[in-house]
Each structure stands twice: as C-alpha cells, then as structure tokens.
C-alpha cells in the first residue's frame, strides 16, 4: 500500500501516514523500520531523545530506496534548546542517521519555563534557509506558543505534532492550525494501544467494516486530515496499520468517534512538562 500525501505550507509533499519509533530500542529499530519500509511506509518519525536514530538510519540505508522517496522526521530535545545548541544537536542527529538532510525537523516540546523556544525556532529557520532541512515544525505547541512564534519570527511552522486520538481530539488547536496553514500531526494516534482501542463504539464500527479497531481509528484520523505515525514492532500490526486506504467511514461513524472526546491526555500537559 502507498499512503496518500499532504502538501505542507511550503509546498513540500509528505505521506499522510508514517511509522513512529518511540520506545523502540536502537538495536531493534533497524529491524522494525525495515519491516515498515517493506510494508510500504516511506515516512519515519524519530527524535534524538528516542536514542534510535542510528538503527533507523541503518534501515534507511539498507532499504536501497532512493533518498527522495523517503521522508525522515527528527526532533531537537529539550536540553538542547537555544540557538547554537540546536544547531549542534541537528548536526549530531544527521550524523547518527547517516543522512545529509532531514525532511522535517521539529522542536520536541515548547518548554515555556525555559523561555528558549523562540531562539530555538530561529535556529530551525537558519537550518531551513541553509537547505539542510526541507521543512521545519514544532511538537506539543499550544495556541499561545504558536501565537508567540507568529509575533516574533518569520517562518510559519509547517506542522505541529501533538497528542491526538479519539479521547483527546484537540478541537481548539486543530482550528488554530487550519486558520494558519499548519498541518496537524497526531502522536499516539492509537492512544498508545490502551483504552481507546478497546472502546465498544470503535469495536462496533470495526465489526461492520470487517476491519480492526486500529484501522478504524487510523481511518478517522486520515478523514479528518491529520497526519498519523502509528508505532508497532509486530510485523502483522505494522502491515495492518498501513492497510487503511481502501475503505471509508461514513458520516455517522465519524460523528460516533467524535463523541468519544473526553479530553484525556496520556502524556504531559506541554505547559507543565519539566
Ligand atoms: P500509538 O498510539 O502509535 O500506539 C502504539 C501502541 O499501540 C503499540 O506499542 C502497540 O501496543 C499498540 N498497537 C499498535 N498497532 C496496533 C494494532 N494494529 N492493533 C493493536 N494494538 C496496536 O503510540 P505511540 O508510539 O505513543 O505514538 C506513535 C508515535 O508518535 C511514536 O512512536 C513517536 O514517533 C510519536 N510520539 C511523539 C511524541 C512527541 O512528544 N512528539 C510523543 C509520543 C509519541
């Protein structure tokens, strides 16, 4: 299967479904990423703090796929925020990935208590201007953080990667994104495989389509326009999660999933993360 694409606000084209590798140990990452590439994934989401950029890079190289067919995202970790430290962190990530550019570079968390995300963003603007990254974006930014970037910097983030799943639908943030041409990317799109996958509403829809709960949730994201990066190290699930382009939820099903929004975070509130 080949994922549909979305076009970012700078014209760069990105697969709407990719493979996330959080919590995959470096010595298992090459295997998992190789399985994903075989299954048809072309977008990989890693981060310096995941400590698996080396394994990820090995799988990218071993795949023999042309670089321009791959879409690689990595992120600057909180402890490296600030202008020069971000530039150094970017070089270190490229080295570990064994790449000479990444497709998308993100600020991992705003860390407003550090008050460095504006300087960090200016470093990303420089990397973008220097052609070392095809697009720049943020992660875990709330509207207030995005507004501050809009007031004090020049490049609008291409994308904001945030916790988003049926139990946390991020209505306010998604509205801000669409007003400002920022793509919404959902992390933990399956709610980390916890409660949301076992929800009876999702289960009934899945049964009706002859699909799995994970496939129904991913379909819901895609139909909302979200970019998704589900994670699995199980080959059958890796394949299952990309086999979602040949069916469509109807309006009633979309409304039923909309009804599951309880505002429940699995991760920290970005304003309180420390
Ligand atoms: P996810 O929602 O993708 O869930 C993954 C878990 O769900 C798996 O470990 C497995 O237990 C289960 N699962 C996966 N496929 C399944 C299937 N088909 N059937 C049943 N169970 C299945 O959670 P995630 O890994 O937290 O998020 C995905 C990616 O998002 C991460 O790997 C990472 O790349 C990114 N992420 C980013 C941030 C951030 O701060 N920017 C935070 C968390 C995650």
Structure description:
By secondary structure, this protein is of the alpha/beta class. The mean pLDDT is 97. The chain is globular and about 55 Å long. It contains ten helices and ten strands. Helix 6 links the parallel strand 8 and strand 9. Helix content is 40%, strand content 15%. The chain binds nicotinamide-adenine-dinucleotide. Nicotinamide-adenine-dinucleotide binds next to helix 9. Pfam families: Aldo_ket_red (PF00248). This is Aldo/keto reductase. Belongs to the aldo/keto reductase family. Keywords: NADP, Oxidoreductase.
Structural class: alpha/beta
Our count of domains comes out at 1
Low-confidence stretches: none
CATH topology: TIM Barrel
Strands ordered across the widest β-sheet? 3-4-5-6-7-8-9-10
List the main descriptive attributes of the protein structure presented here:
alpha/beta; 274 residues; TIM Barrel; 10 strands; binds nicotinamide-adenine-dinucleotide; 10 helices; eight-stranded parallel sheet; single chain; two-stranded antiparallel sheet
Task: Briefly summarize what is shown.
The active site is at 50 (proton donor). The chain has 274 residues and is of the alpha/beta class.
């Amino acid at each position: 299967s080949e994922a549909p694409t979305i076009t970012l606000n700078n014209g760069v084209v990105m697969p709407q479904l990719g493979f996330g590798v959080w919590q995959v140990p470096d010595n298992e990452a090459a295997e998992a990423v190789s399985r994903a590439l075989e299954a048809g994934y072309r977008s990989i989401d890693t981060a310096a703090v995941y400590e698996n950029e080396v394994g990820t890079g090995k799988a990218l190289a071993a795949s023999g796929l042309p670089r321009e067919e791959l879409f690689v995202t990595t992120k600057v970790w909180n402890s490296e925020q600030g202008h020069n430290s971000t530039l150094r962190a970017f070089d270190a990530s490229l080295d570990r990935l064994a790449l000479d550019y990444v497709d998308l570079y993100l600020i991992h968390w705003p860390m407003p208590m550090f008050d460095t995300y504006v300087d960090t963003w200016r470093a990303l603007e420089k990397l973008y201007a220097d052609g070392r990254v095809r697009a720049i974006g943020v992660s875990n930014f709330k509207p207030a953080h995005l507004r501050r970037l809009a007031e004090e910097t020049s490049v609008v983030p291409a994308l904001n990667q945030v916790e988003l799943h049926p139990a946390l639908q991020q209505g306010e943030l998604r509205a801000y994104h669409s007003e400002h041409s920022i793509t919404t990317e959902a992390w933990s799109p399956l709610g980390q495989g916890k409660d949301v996958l076992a929800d009876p509403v999702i289960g009934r829809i899945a049964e009706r389509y002859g699909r799995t709960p994970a496939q129904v949730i991913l379909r819901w994201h895609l139909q909302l326009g979200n970019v998704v990066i589900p994670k699995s190290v199980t080959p059958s699930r890796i394949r299952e999660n990309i086999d979602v382009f040949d069916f469509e939820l109807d309006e009633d099903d979309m409304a039923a999933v909309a009804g599951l929004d309880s505002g429940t975070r699995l991760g920290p509130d970005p304003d309180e993360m420390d």
